[in-house]
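Bit of a strange request maybe. I'm writing a small parser for structure token strings and I need a real example to test against, not something I typed by hand. Could someone generate the tokens for this chain?
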Amino acid sequence: MPYAATPAASRALLIGAGHFAHGGDFERLDAAHRNIEVLRDALTAPQTGLLRPSGVRLLTDPPSRDTVLRAIDGAQKRATDLLLVYYAGHGFHNLDTGELYLAVRESSLDRPGLTGLSVADLMAQLSTGRSKRVVLILDCCFSGNFPLDLLPPGRAVSLITSSGFNALVSPGDLPGAPTPFTAALAEVLRWGISPDEYVTVQSLGARLRELAEGKDNNEMFPYQPREISTSGGADTVLSLALGTARVPREQQLRRAVRRAAGLVPPPRALWHPVVPNRVLSLGLGLLLLAGGIFGGITGYQNATREDPCPPPLELRMATAPEEVAPMSELVEAFEKSGKDHADNGRARDCRTARITVYGTGLDALGAAFAHAGDWGAGARGVLADVGPQPDLWAAQSSAEVELIRGGLSGLGSQQRENFFVTKLMASDRPVLVVTDAARKRLGLKDTGGAVGTTDWRQLRAALKKEDGTKLLRPNPAVSGVGLDHALGMYAKEPVTDQPFDYAQGVLDDQAIRKLETGAISQARSVSDAGQALCELRTAARDGTGDDDGAPAGALVTGRQAQQLIDGEPLGGQCPGGSPPAASSDFQRYELSGVPRFDYPLVAVRWQAADRKARDDAIKAFRSWLRSPAGRDKIDKAGYESQAALAVDIGATELDDRLDTFRAAHPDLRLTVLFDVSASMRERGRFEAAREAVGESLGRLGAKDRFALRTFPSGKDGGGTDEVTDGWREPGAGLGLERSALRPVGQRQADLLEAVREAAEGGTEDGTQHAVLLVTDGDYLKGKEPRTAQLRSLGRELHRRGVPVVVASMRPYGCADSKAAPHEPGALATASGGACAALSGDLPAQLSRAVAALTEGRRR
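Reply from user aminoacidic:
Good idea to test on real output. This should exercise your parser:
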């Protein structure tokens, strides 16, 4: 049932951060001030507003994080029913830790921990209050990165964010107007959704997502709303509007009571600081007028004061997930390289452009560009699958660019001709990493820790002789690294000419199928090089590298292979590092006859009013990359700074090669095994997981199918329930309701039995089986989590060719090491699957992991 809070026991704190001391770091955002005014009016509207005007506080340009926390503390002392906190401003990251911060007036990018308000501190403060319901709304860039494990368990808390993961949002173009997201938010609160129900948090979130798909949300930085609620917070009422022009009788009565109590806000004109000659009643109006005049004077002073730096131009760069970290390092170095001079001649740091880097799979990016004309309008779910329109695309190989260029559509002929402008920025070599035991079996020379050489003609002969040796390769439909390696695998003879162009011909389809089903581990691919190296490292560490079917090597880049040797972290699906590897652990071989990675930097020339400014900023970035400072940073990031075109194959031939790859792989049957124990009610786990699984199913191929099972089925934590009747098509939707969750007292979940039962389900002949497990852990009362047994089950499933992809809904995420032996990560890595942790990036992580199992979506 909807929960409508008592106005007298409810409070709202609306924070608008628009002016900043460090103008070179944060662009002035006058829309933030307008946002809190518009939202206040919607929350306190006489006929539909849930709150009293006296219960809403506006906090404009808070000078420090402590100011915000004290203001929340003050609201908490008065809010025993509902507390709503809203923030409009700039969200930003600590580039060292990834922690999300909200900007206040004193914030600076160089000192985020000292000057910014961390969302962890914000949530810690909100968790201490006595209010029955808490709603936090964030309208800022990167709000989609909010760590969902910060949501407190056992309390009705709701989170609504405006951006996608690692995404910017537009402040809008109209002076004096609110941001597009808050304009939509206020519209729903004012006018309602249904004539039969008040606006709840859940219905508000759903309506905002609908509006985000509309044509009005076609900004360069569109809003991508997300709503997550815990412990029943989704049914919290935020507006009494009923989506009809008729004013219900109870609202008429409530309005009359408010008027009698003097709580109706004066007409809109009386709130404006430049109209002081109206007569206001009950003394409240005088106070409002005085505050308005003072605010107007302060606002005028802020508006006329020149910032020390002009606001930087915001750009976005798409790249492969495993390239996000090194590309972000390059971007950060470029941003800090810009110098300007004040009138007094002193040097100052002024960022001319700010570039946001985000990761996406090749298949999703290709599908988006295949309907490029719809991207800005948010159609076809592109914003959720990929993200906002990129200004730059840092591809791993020129083959990717040709593949996607060939599928471009939805553009005018003139725009399409110059839509991609490509310049090479770095290079790297294709490398095979193998365990030393595999090196001996394959007859490769001991390199003594250096990088040796081999080619696919030698490898094919050796792999044919050593039938049990398996290699991991990123899915060529999803990964540029995988695509490049597949080109070399499929060539009859090593191609020596550069750029690579298949001059010596291609293997026949039968030979390619044998390679894919024999040499590539379990006839499947991994999502990216990080996952490949993680699985290889885990197999070597656990002593399974010599087992039949266990991975003995990985096809990656030279930079990525060096990360393994140096013991560095290998990406989100393999958190944490390991001691540096000795030459006796792994050996590396450059593959001659495989095209090098030439890292084209593609300028994507969308039609825009500020097209010239964007072109100039991109030109400046490219010039910096070619400068001595840029080349030095490229070398330090692990790439080679000298680049040359490495592959010259047309889109048609590349499509043919991918069709051959797809034909070699069986259709996928995916069992979704969903934990519905009572603990999944906490911290928004159920809602976050359901949304992420729904998005990941969109990455299945047309011939793939899924089935849904839930666990536990009994109070003792045992058993599973079959929800679907047989296998469903990907477009059927998950169809899992919150009512499936077990009663509050039933927290046991026998993960071991559930996974074994789901994996025993079996599939039809000629198909591949995998399990997508959603869980917050193995729990039987009085027993420790059975990590060792789950790892043993994972190895058994690995031998049977049934990988387990895990969505881990616990704070410890996907950790799997001797220091942190947690069951979700152990099961995933031992089975040859992948693990995605609860975070704002969960849908993207899980989608990439599922995409790696299938033949890939066709555009």
